[in-house]
What we know:
single chain; 188 residues; alpha+beta
Amino acid sequence: MFNFYGTPTIETNRLILRKICLDDTLSIFDHWISDERISDNRVSAAHKTVAETKVRVEKIVCGYDTKEFCYWGIELKDDGDLIGEIDLYDFDQSTGNCEVSYSIGYDWWNKGYGTEALRAVVEFAFIHMNAHKLSAAHNTDNPASGRIMEKAGMKKEGVIRHMIRNAKGQYKDCAVYGLLKEDSPFGR
């Protein structure tokens, strides 16, 4: 059974995971949501206008009204840049299982920020929320995301063919990863 705390601030060595606010709209647009290199790995298309991003950010901000909403902006401690997002979702109370997803702006790829953020959210989910299992998936043509999952302790469980259809209408195979609390450093 999950314990919900909403979206508390989480600090790591280099990052602050925090609630997204309306003032973040332009950073979100500029840093990842309008970038085709990022949207190719997401279901939704790259945003063409800041107005699209504003609508999305307003929806996220409204989500914070409920404790079951766990959605963080990933901010660098050293300069305050908002470089990505990470969230927990699809909570199944009967199993204690949920999913995690993340996006990091291209300028910050291959610097370990995705791994650092994912490890922090894994710890939060297992220790504070009492999750039983976390799952995540990535397009098979984006193996770097799989490496982030592996570095956070997740194990590849298989590949689902044509799991998603991206905004360009292309079907994508996805590698599915999982981590049980008992197999994590935070297990009983």
